[in-house]
Amino acid sequence: MKKEKKLQTWGYKLFKPFLGFLFKIYYKPIIINKENIPLKGPIIICANHIHILDQCSIIISTKRVIHYMAKKEYFDGPYKWFFKITGCIPVNRQIKDKNASNLAIDVLNKEGAIGIFPEGTRNKTNEFLLPFKYGSVSMAKKTNATIIPVGITGKYKRKEKLVVRFGTPFKVDEMSIEDANKKLYNEISNLMKENIKLIEK
């Protein structure tokens, strides 16, 4: 029998207080509705993806350990040690990575938290949002996990507004995967539009 891979989280707990503090004082993100993150139970936090630091905006919003789905290339580079000790899950984006999905599902079945960007990559285009992949809603349906949509808007620059808005949690339940993905897309899109109103004030 193949031994189950155990994700390490000691690095997450060690570095979060210090790095989180630096992130907050430098970027001063405006975080709205972080109380929407359930304190327990399986959750999948889904956000749009505009910057490599997007996960930091979410990590500082909750005391829970979030296992982020991250591209496999990060685990092959010079900082692979960091991703390994902070509970990240490597994803081979060139294939339908069942190993990554199984690891994430195992976390959810153990009442844990997964972080994922449904766009699949950073949005470097002029499109408001890239099409969503189905991984997040599929995992939610299989594990009865709660999805928390998040809209991130602004620039990661000092003296620029950066807004992180958490939406209303929902479950896939009897929805089809297609309908759930459409709902998630619309929820995040609406959160981003609300952020834009705040930034433009």
Please work out how many helical segments DSSP would assign.
6
Element-level helix/strand string: HEEHEHEHEHEEH
- What is the rounded Rg? 16 Å
Terminal CA distance reads 59 Å
Please tally the β strands and state the result: 7
- What value does the average pLDDT take? 94
* Overall domain count: 1
Protein architecture, described:
The protein is an alpha/beta fold. The protein has one domain. The protein contains 6 helices and 7 strands, in the order αββαβαβαβαββα. It has a 7-stranded mixed sheet. Helix 4 (98-109) packs across helix 5 (135-143) and helix 5 (135-143) packs across helix 6 (177-199). It is globular and about 45 Å long.
